[in-house]
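Homework help board

Subject: predicted structure for assignment chain

Our instructor gave us this sequence and asked us to write out the predicted structure in token form, then describe one feature. I got the tokens but I'm not sure how to describe them. Can anyone check?
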Amino acid sequence: MQQVLKVLELDNVIKRYDNGVVALGGLTFHVPSGSIFGFICLNGAGKTSTIRIIAGLSRKDFGKIRIFGKEMEYLENSYKGSVGFVLDEPLYFDWMSAKEYLQFVGKMYGLSSDESEYRTNELLDFFNLIDTEKNPIRTFSTGMKKKFHLLLRSFINHDFSYSMNRWKV
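My token output:
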């Protein structure tokens, strides 16, 4: 039987704050390759603490975190080009349309106009945002902004967007 690559693994991760609050009391889970993962928990359950630890913004007290099988340490940056996060409050030049913003990002990443146009159209269609391509981002609902943030991550990491062709949002 073929072993499935685990994109993310947390093994007995513990996080205690200076005030004694235990944010994570031995969190263990894994995310297999090809899956979409999100946290749905009560307030105070440790979602933000977990994300901050995975993102390297906060230190865990105990446990192991592996990304693509490699153990990750606090403030390590080697994995960040392969991992994306959808933030609570993503920041954009929100006066731009989705299409304008993606073209701008394409230029920042050195993409040709043709490649940038191709990725823009492919991902706007994939994320069902093609009808909003000319609307300013500031007019998007919260859910649309989060979807656009995931689209943007896919735009930047094209290897990820290719693997998404198997799914439909």
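Reply (TA_rk): Your tokens look well-formed. For the description, you could write something like this. Residues 98-166 form one domain. That's the kind of observation they're looking for.
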